Amino acid sequence: MAKLVIWIDFDPSGSTLSPSMIRLLEAIHKHGTIRRAAAESGMSYRKAWLLLQQTQKTFKGPVVNAGAGGHAGGGTQLTDLGVEVLTLYRAAVKHSSVAAQGNLETLTKLVRHDAPPRRTQRS
Amino acid sequence: MAKLVIWIDFDPSGSTLSPSMIRLLEAIHKHGTIRRAAAESGMSYRKAWLLLQQTQKTFKGPVVNAGAGGHAGGGTQLTDLGVEVLTLYRAAVKHSSVAAQGNLETLTKLVRHDAPPRRTQRS
User: What is the pLDDT, as a whole number, of residue A72?
Assistant: First the structure.
């Protein structure tokens, strides 16, 4: 079945909430560290860290709280704001998918299903 | 106001309908040639041509018909299938935007509006 992949552009700030930001927040929420979240998301620690900084700057407050680091462990948790962003994004995708379902079903019937997988660059 | 930017992934074929494919189809519909459509979309003729080939392969039939080329002009028009794809995609975006409006309004209130524009790579 067809699936919507949704970016949210915020005008006039020009900032964006992307699927990869959301996947990273979800993985941090699940694993509690950026390192493990990066590994699950198939990105380098550096890329995950940069993406997280970009996400932090998009919102009015921090979306994650880093605990004390070092050998003791530390770890990273979503803040209430981070959880709210995740919840609202998921709700937007769910509502959109329901609303567009009829159009997606019709579009799917027009698609060639013997074509090899193709990926256009996006992040 | 926040805006949804929607990709449609077709499983299990792995093919994708992207916003840039849609912008190109819209520009061809408007201008009647790939060259002018490419110029309006800010892409090279080669990039537009490749993107169009990718779009052609995604669907069961051609989405554009090329007329006789050469000095006589020729030109490129959307086929009925191409128009249908465009119409269904626009309907999916419209229905999604209405359905997600409440979530988008709440998310927008959480966004920092003094942040400089940032662009994450996507096409």
Answer: 42
Report chain A's mean pLDDT, rounded to a whole number. 89
- Give the pLDDT confidence score for residue A40 in this predicted structure: 92
Spacing of C-alpha B57 from chain mean position: 15
In angstroms, the separation between the Cα of residue A61 and the nearest Cα of chain B is: 8
Domain architecture of chain B: domains with CATH: 8-110 (1.10.10.10)
- Taking the C-alpha atoms of residue A37 and residue A50, their distance in angstroms, rounded to an integer, is 13
Residues of A in contact with B81 (CB under 8 A): 110
Helices and strands in chain A, H and E counts: 4, 4
Q: Are B63 and B82 in contact (CB under 8 A)?
A: yes
Q: Tell me the C-alpha distance between A2 and A104, whole Å.
A: 6
Closest CA to B51 of B63, B66, B69: B63
What pLDDT band is residue A121 in, cutting at 50, 70 and 90?
low
pTM: 0.88
Q: Which residues of A touch B111 (CB under 8 A)?
A: 10, 13, 15, 58-60
ipTM of the complex: 0.87
